[in-house]
Amino acid sequence: ALRSFESKHGEIPKGAAREKARRRLELQAATVRGILSANHEAVFTVESLYNGEDLSMKVTRELFEKAVSDLTKRISDLAGRLAWEDVTGIELVGGGSRIPVVQEHLETQVGLEYSPLLRRRVLSARLSVPCSRHHQVSCVCYVEGQVLLLAGRKIPLGRHLNGDEAPSKGAAVCASNHSLIERDPSLKGNRRIWLKDSHHRTYTVGCEGSDGRFLIAEAGQKLQFHTELEVPVPQGGRGILTIFESDLRGSTDRKSQAIERYEIASLGGAKSLRLVARGDQNGIITLSAATTEFIQVTMAFYPTA
Fold first, then answer.
1. Does 194 fall in a domain?
2. Pfam family example for this protein (predicted)?
3. How is residue 58 annotated by DSSP?
4. What is this structure's pTM?
5. Is residue 234 located within the same domain as residue 285?
6. Using CA atoms, how far apart are residues 219 and 72, in angstroms rounded to an integer?
7. How far is Cα 233 from Cα 206, in angstroms, rounded to an integer?
8. Sign of the torsion formed by the C-alpha atoms of 222, 215, 286 and 168
9. 34, 43, 240, 287: which could form a disulfide with 208 (CB 3.0–4.6 Å)?
């Protein structure tokens, strides 16, 4: 766009004027990019870009895709370095996931690289798009369908949520799942949207200094639950409880991932702890002490790795 303008009206001198023009062009480019995600052409217009002269030009999707050809090449380069046998899902993050040529490239070029060894393997794709550039919040939609991966078969990708829709749709889904009407089984046709009523992972708890893992909630168990359990306290331990998450049903091994840690106050010489594990209707798990007169269990921190 800048080259087109300067070919007609002369070069914009370096300095404040050129920097101002560049910023205005970038803002309009972002707008046109969004339009071309849904349309095949758009008008690129900036009024009084320099010395009172306007810039107006038609931009086609084909021209835009040519300009971002380096981006699709990076996708191919990355795909060529992957061991596809280890791939369990694909996640598209950010505004680039809206570009049709990027989605098409993933479905065709990358899809053809899948190995026949992946027959009968199942892929659950998900699309995660930040709510806005100023918030570190991601709204994630899981693709409901499961896709059998066969050699040479395309990978179906769909965009279910974008940055503009995330706040409103996220609030609507949350409200729907909390609605009494949605939970009333006598009202036919109503169901929980997207969210499931059961855990899809297994959760266990362990005390620092001990190899033991104690089951809190198993994959397939209802989200809302109330469980009492007794956890032995190892001698010399600091009184740190960790909640672990595992993809394996009923798993109590040490390969699971730590997701929350709790600190025990006034542990004293206790040999075991009676705990209460609760799960709410959103799947959030919390720990507390069964007997608050003797100990207090409080959230310590979330593991970063």
1. no
2. HSP70
3. E
4. 0.38
5. yes
6. 38
7. 9
8. negative
9. 240
